Amino acid sequence: MLRTSLGDGHAVRDAQRVYEAWNGESRVYLLPDLRKIYRWRDAHHHVGALAIPAECYDVVDVLHVDSRGHVVGPASAWLFPNGVDGFLSRVVAALDQERVSTVSPPPPRAIRLMVPMVRKGHVVVRKGNAVLEWVELPFQPGPLVPFTSINRRTMRVTATWPPSGTSVRSISPEAESEARYGPLRWETLDGKRIAVSVRDPTRTGLWMQLRFPQPLERFFRSDPGLDDATAVLDARAIRRLASRDRARALDKARAAAVPYVGTGTVPAERLYFAQAEARGGLDAVWLLAQDWGLPYPARRRPKRSRLRADHPNGRRP
Predict the structure, then answer these.
(1) By C-alpha distance, which of 224, 262, 259 is closest to 63?
(2) Pairing outcome for strands 47-53 and 27-31
(3) 56 — alpha (psi -120 to 50), left (phi > 0) or beta?
(4) Which residue among 53, 159, 174, 252 is the one 20 to 30 A from 135 at the CA level?
């Protein structure tokens, strides 16, 4: 996803549209110029694909986690090479040992995203598959976070959210900052692009890029934001709570995951076997069926060494 946070109204509404339209596809394209829903088999990535009309461009990869912690979906072998348990152990180690850092490179002019080609409100289809193209989306500034201290000797600054005088707990710093200071526009000062509040031009800011420790960094298709940093801080707090009250920590973790995690069922032939066939042909399907203990037609036995390469997650489900 380009928008990793569901803090703003556009993202919440688009997420609802995805939930309502989804029918087991592994990749969902959100396209503002589209007039109706399209479904097809993505020959480029060997997954079922869905395109829906939306308010903003985005691409959502749907990952399935089974009861044994195995993950299936686009790039699942790269994102979760050792399943959910292995991923969580690496995340815990990263949260305990590393911090979110910041760098200040020149902000990009645009973000490139590969999506289905839309012409006159319809997806362009050739030989049963959607034609993909690159689109460039303007890189928008924001949000603004005020500095609360500046140490000129160490060249370190401290930014705090919410601002002093706010009594309510922050839920989405990005949406709250937008409501307080936005909208923002880019201007140039001394050769550098800065963000300026349209509402109050005296409010300006430099663009800062957040950097997350691995394995979290690879999950961001675009630059992570304040809401993502807040989520990391919340995860650390839950991690500390788990050492004292495991049940309460689990409740807090489940509550935090509600907007992003759902439960459901998908036929095994769609989730596992279709991807195996697309990548390795019938040999991969037969090997997978044998691995599961399912009956399959007698024929020349394929080599077991091919199973890892042909299975959609590179391992037994």
Answers:
(1) 262
(2) parallel
(3) beta
(4) 174
